[in-house]
Amino acid sequence: MAAIVELKDIAATFPGAAQPVFADIDMAVERGEFVIVVGASGAGKSTLLRVIAGLLEPSAGHIAHDIEKRPDRREIAMVFQEARLMPWRKVADNVALGLEGLDVSKSERDRRIADALRLVGLADFGDRWAHELSGGQRQRVGIARGLAVDPDLLLMDEPFGALDAITRQTLQDELLRIWNETGKSILFVTHDIDEAVYLGDRVLLLGGAPARIVRNYEVGAPRPRSREGEEVGRVGAQVKADLSSLFDQGGGI
Amino acid sequence: MTRRSVLGAGGLLAFLLLWEAIARSGLIEATLLPAPSRLPATFFSEVSLGFWHAMVFASLNHYLIGLVSGSVLGVIVGGSVALFPTVDATQSWLARLLRPIPPLAWIPFAIIWFGISETAAAFIIAIGVFWINYFTAYAAVRAVDPDLVELAASFGHRSLGARLRKVILPAAAPGILSGLRAGLGQGWMTVVAAELFGITGIGQRMNEAAGLLATEVVIVYMLTIALLYGVSDMIFVAVQNRVLRWQR
């Protein structure tokens, strides 16, 4: 397997801050892999995604991409915690945001929007306004917007964190289905450990000050998984134990 | 008709009847308070003499020139100040100095620079409209959600032009439009005052009529302004609702 993105000794520092949020980050996402980053709040999980997305310059280190550049797609797309829909655009036009500026014809654009909306189960919602949607539907549109640019790597920043428990579980299963159907690589940030071990091939634990990748867990459970499965439960318990010992050392906050 | 519009029409009718009764009772001299029943005849006489069209046309002309130039400049300057911290810092004391000067205080200079002319009236109107739009555009652009700017950047819209087109202008549109609407009203207030100094238009005609104690003519033009303002505001709101149809 080839790494689709590989981080070497990456550090990020906020302007004016004495020490970096995180440092010496070495990690990679393999093609088609579903990787989760967990950690206490403030450990820099969202910042890490922003560095990979190119929204933030790292203060040290190097990022290597192995993604074919093409004018009709973006290599990396991001899904945010709050759906971040533009209220002045209809659903289809929100999904089109990333396609504007890419080299795609009108018909190809419409096809991609329709495909992305179908993939997230909102085929008939293109003509709605954002405020007519529920929280879960809004987040589906956020995912469709990411998929529409046909990225190799989808970055997801606690995308289900603001949803109620039932909607969250539904969307987790939908995301697994979409991942299966599209073969995208996903780097997914969450603070919900049950979510992490249910979804991920691997879970990275971010902690300390400045934060580092403290541990890498392989979740060996075969798919489709059960939320109550033995392996899922075992890794989950391990992550929880490590996270609370980090917390006791005072390094997690 | 709703209960509200019935009551509204009733209130207006009662006001007119009370006014008519007081005027007819002889308690107040007719020149001080002309009866409303005399107004239609006065209006038709102003129209047939050609004054009404000429004055409305002249006023509309300064109004539109002043409104458009003041609005455009106000939105551009206010928006730029909100976008660029350096521009903001550079102009902040200057704005604090000039902003409190009422538009009408510029009349002496308007006349010195432009004479008793159309341009002078438009200049005074533009000043009042400028400041309203400057502040609303500034506030509207400052209030744009930075999360949406980041979202657009993450999908490749990073240049200033792209940020403006994709996020800032549509997000600030409700605020900018409410400023434009406030300027629309402010403009009508200034137009009359500017014309009182002899620039051709409704204000000048009112001033002439008042000098001759032709108070019914004054009232006809007062109502004309109310009508013009009402119509322009109605048209604006219709356009605004169309542009902002995405809002709940």
CATH homologous superfamily of the largest domain in chain B, by name? MetI-like
CATH architecture of the largest domain in chain B: Orthogonal Bundle
Name of the level-1 CATH class of the largest domain in chain B = Mainly Alpha
Proportion of residues in β-strands of chain A: 15-25%
Q: Spans of chain B with pLDDT under 50 lasting ≥5 residues? A: none
- Output mean pLDDT of chain B: 94
Assembly state (oligomeric): heterodimer
What gross morphology of chain A would you assign? globular
CATH topology of the largest domain in chain B: MetI-like fold
- Sketch the major β-sheet of chain B: none
User: Main beta sheet of chain A, described?
Assistant: 6 strands, mixed
Count of helical stretches of chain B: 10
How would you describe this protein?
The complex is a heterodimer of chains A (253) and B (248). Chain A is an alpha/beta fold and 253 residues long. Chain A has helices at residues 45-53, 91-95, 106-119, 135-148, 165-182, 193-199, 230-248, and strands spanning 3-12, 22-30, 34-39, 60-65, 76-79, 153-157, 185-189, 202-207, 212-218. Chain A has two domains: 32-56 and 157-253, P-loop containing nucleotide triphosphate hydrolases (Rossmann fold), CATH 3.40.50; 72-151. In chain A, the strands form two sheets. Chain A has a six-stranded mixed β-sheet, with helices on both faces. In chain A, strands 2-1-4 form a three-stranded antiparallel β-sheet, covered by helices on one side. In chain A, a hairpin with a 4-residue loop joins strand 8 and strand 9. In chain A, helix 6 packs across helix 7. The longest helix of chain A is centred in the C-terminal third of the chain and has 19 residues, at 230-248. The mean pLDDT of chain A is 93. Chain B is an all-alpha fold and 248 residues long. Chain B has ten helices and no strands. The longest helix of chain B is centred in the last third of the chain and has 36 residues, at 160-195. The A-B interface holds A 53, 55, 74, 77-78, 80, 82, 84, 86-90, 97-98, 100-102, 129, 131, 145, 149 and B 147-148, 150-157, 162, 166-167, 170-171, 173, 246-248.
